[in-house]
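FAQ

Q: What does a record look like?
A: Structure on top, sequence underneath. For example:
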C-alpha cells in the first residue's frame, strides 16, 4: 500500500524576480552628450588663427596719434611729371607729386640741420683767441637760429604730409577753396590761398600796430 502512495515533494520556495537595474549606459550617454560642445570649441579655436592670419596680411601704417590706417596705393609717376592746370585738381598723381616734393625737402633740411650740429661741435673744440672766439660765437648764434628755422619748417612739412594722406592738401584752411598749383609749387607747405594769406598778413599787421 505504501508503494501505491505518491511521494510527497517538498514545497518549492517561490522566488520573486528582482527588478532589473536601470541600464548604466544611459548616464554615461548623458555625460558623454557634451561632446558636440567640445567639437564646437575646437572648431572655433581653429577658426580664430585663420582670421588673425588674414588680418596680419593686410598692410597697415601707424600714424603719429596711434591710430592705424590701411596703406594707400600710390600711383607711379612718369619721369619728369609736372602738374598742369588742365588736369583734375589734386588728383592722385598731383598728390603723389607734392608728397614726393615734400619728402625730398624734408630730407634736405634734416641733412643740413645735422651738418650744422657737426659744425658746432667742431668749432667748440677749436677755440682760439678772444677775437676768434667772439666771431665764432656770432656764427654759432646764426647757425642755431638757422637750425631752429629748419626745425619749424620740418614740423610744417610733416603737417602738410598729413594733409596729403587725409586728402585735404591743396585747399585753403580758411575758405576751403583751391590754393592753386602755382602757389603750391612755390611753397608746398602753404595752407592758405593767396587772398586768404593777404588777409591774414593784414590782420597781423593791424595787431602789431
Amino acid at each position: 500500500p505504501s508503494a501505491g502512495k505518491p511521494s510527497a515533494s517538498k514545497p518549492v520556495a517561490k522566488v520573486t524576480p528582482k527588478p532589473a537595474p536601470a541600464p548604466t549606459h544611459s548616464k554615461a550617454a548623458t555625460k558623454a552628450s557634451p561632446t558636440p560642445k567640445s567639437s564646437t570649441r575646437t572648431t572655433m579655436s581653429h577658426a580664430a588663427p585663420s582670421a588673425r592670419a588674414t588680418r596680419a596680411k593686410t598692410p597697415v601704417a601707424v600714424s603719429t596719434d596711434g591710430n592705424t590706417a590701411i596703406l594707400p596705393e600710390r600711383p607711379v609717376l612718369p619721369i619728369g611729371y609736372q602738374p598742369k592746370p588742365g588736369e583734375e585738381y589734386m588728383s592722385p598723381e598731383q598728390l603723389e607729386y607734392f608728397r614726393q616734393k615734400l619728402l625730398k625737402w624734408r630730407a634736405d633740411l634734416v641733412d643740413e640741420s645735422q651738418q650744422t650740429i657737426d659744425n658746432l661741435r667742431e668749432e667748440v673744440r677749436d677755440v682760439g683767441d678772444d677775437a676768434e672766439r667772439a666771431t665764432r660765437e656770432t656764427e654759432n648764434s646764426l647757425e642755431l637760429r638757422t637750425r631752429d628755422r629748419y626745425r619749424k619748417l620740418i614740423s610744417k612739412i610733416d603737417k602738410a604730409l598729413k594733409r596729403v594722406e587725409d586728402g585735404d592738401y591743396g585747399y585753403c584752411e580758411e575758405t576751403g577753396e583751391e590754393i592753386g598749383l602755382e602757389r603750391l609749387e612755390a611753397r608746398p607747405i602753404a595752407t592758405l590761398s593767396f587772398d586768404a594769406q593777404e588777409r591774414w598778413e593784414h590782420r597781423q599787421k593791424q595787431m602789431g600796430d
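Q: Is there anything notable about this one?
A: The longest helix spans residues 130-166.
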